[in-house]
Design a protein that fits this description.
25% helix, 2 helices, alpha+beta, three-stranded mixed β-sheet, hypothetical protein PF0899 fold, binds zinc ion
C-alpha cells in the first residue's frame, strides 16, 4: 500500500534524525502533504497508527499540514497558487507553469525527546 511505504520512509528519516541529534525518541512528527501529492491525510494517519507501534518511537504523534499547490511561471517568473488545477499564470496568462510545492509529502520537523541532563535538580 502506497501510504504504508510512505510512512516507512518517514520513519527511516525520523530514525536518522533521532540518532544524529542524540535523542532518546521522537515525540511529534510533522509532515506536509501537498494537495497534488495524491496522498489522503486520513489514509496516512491510519497507516501511521498501524506502523508506529513497530517503530523506535511508538508514542510519537503525527501532525499533518496540507500545503497548497504553488507554481512558477516560466514566462514571467512569478510564483502563484494554483487554484482548481488551472495552470495559467495570473500575471501574464502564460501556460508554462511548473509546480514548486504541493505535489509531495515532506517531513517538516520532528520533536525529539532528549536524554535527561544529569543533576537537573528536579525531584
Ligand atoms: Zn507569467
Amino acid at each position: 500500500m502506497h501510504e504504508e511505504s510512505l510512512v516507512r520512509g518517514l520513519f527511516q528519516q525520523v530514525d536518522r534524525l533521532v540518532e544524529k541529534n542524540c535523542g532518546v525518541t521522537a515525540r511529534e512528527i510533522n509532515v506536509e502533504i501537498g494537495t497534488l501529492s495524491g496522498v489522503e491525510p486520513e489514509l496516512l494517519f491510519s497507516a501511521f497508527k498501524r506502523l508506529v507501534g513497530q517503530s523506535a518511537f511508538p508514542a510519537a504523534s503525527l501532525n499533518v499540514t496540507v500545503s497548497l499547490l504553488t507554481a512558477c511561471c516560466e514566462d514571467c517568473g512569478s510564483e502563484s497558487e494554483v487554484r482548481d488545477f488551472r495552470f495559467v499564470c495570473p500575471q501574464c496568462e502564460g501556460r508554462r507553469l511548473h509546480v514548486i510545492s504541493g505535489d509531495s509529502v515532506r517531513l517538516l520537523s520532528v520533536v525529539l525527546e532528549l536524554p535527561e541532563p544529569e543533576n537537573s535538580g528536579v525531584i
